[in-house]
Amino acid sequence: xxxIEPINEIKTEVTVPADKSISHRAVFFxxxxxxxxxxxxxxxxxxxxxxxxxxxxxxxxxxxxxSSQKTIYLQGKGLYFPxxxxxxxxxxxxxxxxxxxxxxxxxxxxxxxxxxxxxxxKRPMGRIVYPLREMGANIDGDKMVKQEQGDLYPPLKIExxxxxxxKSHTLNIASAQVKxxxxxxxxxxxxxxxxxxxxxxxxxxxxxxxxFGANIEIDKNRVSLKxxxxxxxxxxxFIPSDFSAAAFFIVLALILEKSRIxxxxxxxxxxxxxxxxVLRRMNADITIxxxxxxxxxxxxxxxxxxxxCSTVVEQSEIAAMIDEVPIxxxxxxxxxxxxxxxxxxxxRVKETDRVFSMxxxxxxxGVDILDKDDSPDGCQIIINGGCGxxxxxxxxxxxxxxxxxxxxxxxxxxxxNKIDDIRCIDKSFPGFIKIIKECKTP
Length: 442
Hints:
Layout: E1 2-4, E2 11-14, H1 20-31, E3 36-40, H2 46-57, E4 61-64, E5 72-75, E6 87-90, H3 95-105, E7 112-115, H4 126-134, E8 138-142, E9 153-159, E10 168-170, H5 176-186, E11 193-196, H6 204-211, E12 215-219, E13 222-226, E14 236-238, H7 243-255, E15 260-267, H8 274-281, E16 285-293, E17 297-304, E18 312-313, H9 315-318, H10 325-333, E19 338-341, H11 354-364, E20 368-375, E21 378-384, E22 393-394, H12 400-411, E23 417-419, H13 432-439
Parallel strand pairs: 2-15, 3-14, 6-7, 10-11, 18-19, 22-23
Antiparallel strand pairs: 1-23, 3-5, 4-5, 7-9, 8-9, 11-13, 12-13, 15-17, 16-17, 19-21, 20-21
Helix pairs in contact: 1-2, 1-3, 2-3, 3-5, 4-5, 7-10, 7-12, 10-11, 10-12
């Protein structure tokens, strides 16, 4: 058990790790380039290491800067990985690794088996398998009776296809991972590949494809890609700090009195930082300084203590803040009034059921919180904010974002709390506990 002692205030400046989503994509795009590329600063975490391990097994060479481990030098081999025999890959617990990389594997000339860790083994893969099959991909997964009927799960088995064909896809749920897998498969297809979402999900893949010369067109929630264009990758890829990691410190500064924090060089991609819009609506004092732009916009986020008020988060806003919903629940617990967060079906199939993990934990601590699956707005969480929450023993359910959100909640509480397991935090943010200790005011 890890014990969390409450703190009174924070006044500091922090730099959180590089963006996880962009780190994954930088590896995959560099692997299908044809030159040596410098990627920096690179997120060193369990998830991103899974992607590096996979591309190494696919014949791609890379090395890390010995001094910091935050710079990767990777030698691409072009669209086709240099393998001619069956390859077995392991994604660990990284859904990004298995889903996006599968989009590249279906176009290869060799067989592959993609295995996963204990938690990822239970996450549905039909959402990429079925649309990839419609493009002619030879891909399959396991059927498990105890899971959702009709879906497929790891391991994924991929055989060379006789020929991929571009297709128009209309997604029922906005998903950057599914969209990315289909667009990358489209690089090997004959004809145009189109992906249309109900709401715009994070667009890191589109930005990279566009920056590197792919024949891609973006029109709001619709993306189309025509194969054949030569990808011209740069000599280096700069990765800004992860907004999802910054979100924990943003909320901590807001809910603690007499606090101010600056989070440096944070990714400000509009399709990614929807939480900022919602928090400002809740009366959050947040400003942006030193804004710059390369492939992605980034800048410094300055946050001051605020008396938060409630809001309603619509389903159309969730895609741009899907990973930040757990920490938003914490902000809402300390806000005045009733907050509604709608359209949360996607959170049911993350590393854990994040709707359940947050509702069950926060309610145990005395938060007035409930979830509803039968409303016209789909799955939603309703929170009546307050204060004076009691100390309890939390469960992480093996989920990094649940664990970090509960730690932030506990730092602002009046009593100490405990959490059963914090090892899962290494999935995305290995230095989180260290930064928390450095933030504490004596």
